[in-house]
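**User:** Here is a favour to ask of a fellow structure person. Please take any protein you like and set down a full record of it. No explanation is needed for now; the record alone will do.

**Assistant:**
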Amino acid sequence: MRLTVLAGGIGGSTFLRGLLKARPDADITVIGNTADDITLFGLRVCPDLDTVMYTLGDGISKERGWGREDETWVIKEELAAYGVEPAWFGLGDRDVATHLVRTQMLDAGYGLSAVTEALCARWKLPVRLLPMSDDRVETHVVIDAPDSPGAKKAIHFQEYWVRLHAEVPAHQIVPVGSEKAKPAPGVLEAIASCDVLILPPSNPVVSIGTILGVPGIREAVRDTPAPVIGLSPIIGTGPVRGMADKVLAAVGVESTASAVARYYGARARDGVIDGWLIDTSDAAQLDSIAGAGIHAQAVPLWMTDETKTAAMADAALSLAEAVRR
């Protein structure tokens, strides 16, 4: 079975562990979001790619869900002693090695996809991890300018997420560079040739949304012969993890499972999904989703352990077969 998954960071990588448990023999390609990427201290940092890589390579910090296990922070402390900014984003010592290798390879002229392949070789991943694009795309968030009443300013998504904790209203999400980007080598082929395409419970705006925003990828998803199945990142009125509700508000989408399904839209109606899984607690929304032309089922969606996450993956693949028939 050939499976292709569009993934963000923590939510996507957690789902992938369950998918691997459910289908250990599947040929899985992961297309990772790179619009969270940022250059810090002269190093190119790819948070979502690294979270997938560390998680599936058994190097992730289980406590934090990001960064390396057994991490130390000497470099961060030394940078702070020098007064180097930004102080709000810390790179662990083990993590720095990854960014050094990536930056050196990029500076030598290698594309991000080739760099990612080289980094993943160290971790012996059970999946093929592709960046959405080799071109530079960075999400910015438009907020109120704190020192200029009535004015707006754009800041990098990482500053909005990490420094501000998404606690100020976001007026607009801007994926800078997206309109000129091209899908990375292998991305369109992985979408066109898979048996099932899965949108895990990653952020629909700044993770899955930015992947779909690369010219050619949304069209490939719409044209693939494979069923496209999504899993809701919203349970009740809140995100499974993170602050997806904050950026959903910025694009005018209510924080509910049915609203996110309609945001993606049915492929039969110019959208990108055929099927949608919601949590059992949201079963009352099934009729609304069906009315949007999307096949929907309610199953437990809390990814509290690998067994429960594997059951979610099984449910997604079963829904794909139902849609296919």
Summary: Residues 306-324 form the longest helix (19 residues).
